[in-house]
Amino acid sequence: MKVSVLGALKATYEGVDVTPSAPKLRSVLALMALRRGRVVTTGTLIEELWGANPPVSALATLQTYVYQVRRTLTAVDRGGEKILETKPLGYILHLEPQALDKDVFDELVEQARALLGEGETREALEALNRALAMCPATPLVDVDLGPVLSAQVNQVAEDVLQALEMRVEARLQLKLHRELISELKLLICHHPFHEGFHAKLMISLQRSGRRSEALEVYQTLRRNLREELGIEPSTALRELQRELLNAELSPSAAETPPPARTASFVTPAQLPPDIADFAGRDQLVKTLTTLLTDTPQSTALRLVSITGMSGAGKTTLATRVAHRVRVQFPDGQLFADLGGSRAGAVDPFAVLGSFLQAIGIDAAQLPATLEERTQLFRSRTAESRLLVLLDDAVSAAQALPLLPGGSRCAVLVTGSNGLSSLPGARQLEVGVLSPEECLRMLCTAIGRARVEAEEEAALAIVERCGRLPLAVRTAGAKLGTDPNYPLRRLADRLGDRRRLLTELRFGGFDVAARLAPGYLRLNPRAQRTLRLLAEHDAGTLTASRAAALLGTDLNDAESLIEQLVEQRFLRPEGLDALCREETAFTLPEPVMSYALTQAAPAGGVP
Predict the structure, then answer these.
(1) Which listed residue, of 242, 317, 352, 562, carries a Cα 20 to 30 Å from 24's Cα?
(2) How confident is the model over 443-464, as pLDDT tens digits?
(3) Which of 407, 227, 195 has its CA nearest to residue 303?
(4) CA 32, CA 268: separation in Å to the nearest integer?
(5) How far apart are the C-alpha atoms of 95 and 129, rounded to whole Å?
(6) Using CA atoms, how far apart are residues 26 and 337, in angstroms rounded to an integer?
(7) For the chain, how long is the longest CA-to-CA vector?
(8) Beta bridge partners of 302
(9) DSSP secondary-structure letter at 328?
(10) H helices within 359-454, ranges in order?
(11) By the 8 A CB rule, do 283 and 430 touch?
């Protein structure tokens, strides 16, 4: 099986074209191909096909589409079931290495990058020519793009653009400036604010004895930047213009223009402080550190998302990792709290304004639209080594405009859900802590001697807190105010599920407030399902047991469970001990307590 996405969508098996013709089937295949080898959840596929307002029959219709895609693939490959595999919450398309043209493209570009670093410029140019020959048109040019695929295609297009920049650089190094002029003029037409292409066109024109045209390129760009974005060209471009005016541009100076950065570029250091009672997560810290600091294997941005239940410690984990790797990002660290666990999420337009000012853009020069601010931010960070921490994102769409432009940057995004459609992101799930890790947190808060004196009560406290770091931290803060307050008394008070979250509200800590936004994002039937599960003390269940409890069919129960899993109210636990073909799900204690306190709306919910 081979799949092409760099132009028109095409799937072949041993030379036989098996590309679906129906638009929805093409969208399904394209999305699963770009996510090859990873689970594409049914929620992500529904979002792609129907956006924010799917029909009631969306899940059943999607299952029909997947069946039709699988049937198309099995028309020539009798082992097609292995190519398109069904998982409890989604599907995986299995492709052999290099079966996707984008993978071959990435390998050629990385090969070219290494060759350029070794001074093998001509060989690098050949690799780039082969890579770019695979891009005859816009990625997935003949596929109807929904919100998820649009984001993925934008990332692919960005990788292609960076390969074009690298090829231009290689041709300049080989002194092929005359041949470059027409290509650069065409690139500028498509990317009118790209300062790197303008700089290279100015150099190519100057080397070809056309200095006046080179100066005109600068004036045109400056006029467009001022009229459209309200900003001036970068310092590097202004210096290049001055050298042209003074006729002092030497061939050696023109080999590679300096990176485009503003004169007032400062080094932001916006990370929130690390915390002392951070416990456990050793393997996750190691994995995240590696993902953020390893040399990139392609031109893609290093992008990692951390997901998990509200209160699971995503922010503290991300902050700990960010402090560990900050020295690898000398151009600074940016931070934004996107407000996903509060009633109103933060507008990325405002965040971009603060980011741009943090790297030296004057407030008076900030563009007036989100798209223009995004373009400016990516342009100004294209050559930077910048770390961006986006905390508590409500969706991929909120985080996407805030991504910097260069592969030497890294971004860490946290959120309870909605990040699976973030293009190119490596997603890590944060679970609960072990009992031992929770006890270490309590020891930090109230002292080891006190915990050891009532170890049984301490264990009861952390279990009733669901082993969630936020809940354990709240209990520790509460106990810390009175050194004589018995741990057993708090453990007993936490044993009443209807009072649990009242007890876990202290000072600035409020577990219930962190759960509320996710509950409100559920549709009414999913809210009712959560309340029923709590009322029946359904600590662990499967889809079939949920269907029996709710009085509905299996497909409907799976759809409702999927919503609860997406908002992290249910936690998958692997195959059920009684039924090895079904996944078991756990309802954490704080979630059960929250659901028990939520009254059904007037009139009831069907």
Answers:
(1) 562
(2) 988 999 999 999 999 999 999 9
(3) 407
(4) 38
(5) 25
(6) 37
(7) 86
(8) 410
(9) G
(10) 370-381, 396-399, 435-446, 448-453
(11) no
Quick: pLDDT tens for 290-325: 888 876 556 678 899 998 888 888 888 999 999 888
| Helix H or strand E encompassing 510 | strand 509-510
Alpha-carbon 209 to chain mean position: 47
Q: How far apart are the first and last CA of the chain?
A: 45
pLDDT recorded at residue 11? 92
**Over the range 147-165, which residues count as b (16 or more CB within 10 Å of their CB) and which as e?**
bbbebbbbbbebbbbbbbb
Hey, CA dihedral for 76, 41, 48, 54, is it positive or negative?
positive
More confident residue, 599 or 367: 367
Q: Measure the CA dihedral 82/422/376/329, to 10°.
A: -90
Average pLDDT, the chain: 85
How far apart (Å, rounded) are the C-alpha atoms in residues 279 and 438? Answer: 7
Q: How many helices (H) and strands (E) does the chain have?
A: 27, 16
Distance CA(491)–CA(459), nearest Å, equals 9
Q: 591 is written with which tokens?
A: 């979630």
Q: How many CB atoms lie within 10 A of CB 74?
A: 17
For 353-374, the three-class secondary structure string (H helix, E strand, C coil) is HHHHHHCCCCHHHCCCCHHHHH
